[in-house]
Amino acid sequence: MNVDAVQTALSTEHAALWTYGMVAAFLGNQAAAVAEGSNAHRARRDTTERWLRDQNATPNPPAAAYLPPSPVSDGPSALAALVAVEQDTCAAWRGVLERTDDAALRTTALEALTTAAVRATRWRKAAGTTPASIAMPGVASG
To answer: DUF4439 domain: from which residue to which, for each copy (predicted)?
Structure first.
């Protein structure tokens, strides 16, 4: 169902916002890119909540906190957290794409998937990870 998939995507937007806020202290040298990512996820969250309300659904609220895949204690671990949250966002929006025929929602989901993939690539590049980009964003590898 579209609403369930969009609720899942909204949850990843909440997690992304929380993560960007958490890692900001460790990435002062990349403050502009962190702010851009945070602002993009905030805008996507707001748009997603509006879409859900338009469908007569109540948007799921954010959790009090989120657990990154590994502890964040320095720049490299902060970058890894950002890559992980962008990958999760890609997967969630890909899930929306796979579950709807609604043209406007597909456009929104594709844009969200694409921008999250670009941000994930930026963070992989900043971390020195190779390859910096992946072939199928939003698809589990291996």
So the answer is: 5-140
pLDDT tens across 24-69, in order? 999 999 999 999 999 999 999 999 999 999 999 999 999 999 999 8
Q: What is the pLDDT of residue 94?
A: 96
Instruction: Say which CATH class 3-62+75-127 falls into.
Output: mainly alpha
> Residue ranges per domain, the chain?
3-62+75-127
- Report d(CA 6, CA 95) in Å as an integer: 8
Question: How distant, in Å, are the alpha carbons of 7, 23, 27, 90 from that of 72?
Answer: 27, 7, 11, 21
Q: CB neighbours of 102 closer than 8 A, spacing ≥ 6?
A: 2
Residue type for 112, please?
A
- Give the Cβ contact number of residue 88 at 10 Å: 23
The model's pLDDT over 68-118, given as tens digits with 9 standing for 90+, comes to: 989 999 999 999 999 999 999 999 999 999 999 999 999 999 999 999 999
Counting beta carbons within 10 angstroms of the beta carbon of residue 116, is it exposed (0 to 12), middle (13 to 18) or buried (19 or more)?
A: buried
Report how far Cα 95 is from the mean position of its chain's Cα atoms: 13
User: Does residue 105 sit in helix, strand or coil?
Assistant: helix
